[in-house]
Design brief:
- This protein is α+β, with helices and mostly antiparallel strands.
- It is built from three helices and five strands; from the N terminus they run H-H-E-E-E-E-E-H.
- The protein has a five-stranded antiparallel β-sheet with strand order 1-2-3-4-5, covered by helices on one side.
- Strand 2 and strand 3 form a beta hairpin.
- The protein is globular.
């Protein structure tokens, strides 16, 4: 399974959190830990159908966020100063497509270097 597979699923619309979303969030965090196995993954308390958080390596942070899983477009990625810096560095976007996992990994690693 890839991150793209989680993002690319059809998500049933609901006015409250669904079991499908909670499962996706667990799977997302698990895959993030595998992709960035030398980093700490910090997933924020995410609003309904959204994911955001930080990848931390030593004293460097990268913030990631994407909007509602039901309306796919791209993921925001930017350097951050700490795990509460939601307005940090320049915005970068990774498009949701077949190359998403590799492009996302490469962008995060670039920002951590």
């Amino acid at each position: 399974m890839k991150l793209f597979d989680i993002i690319n699923r059809y998500y049933e619309s609901s006015s409250s959190g669904t079991e499908q979303y909670r499962t996706a969030k667990r799977q997302f965090k698990s895959l993030m830990k595998k992709i960035f196995n030398d980093c700490q993954i910090i997933i924020d308390s995410c609003p309904h159908f959204e994911f955001s958080g930080f990848v931390k390596k030593e004293d460097k942070y990268v913030y990631f966020s994407f909007g509602d899983l039901r309306w796919k477009s791209n993921m925001l990625v930017r350097a951050a100063k700490h795990d509460k810096d939601w307005t940090g560095g320049s915005n970068n976007f990774v498009n949701y497509n077949e190359g998403f996992d590799e492009n996302f990994r490469d962008k995060v690693k670039q920002l951590l270097s």
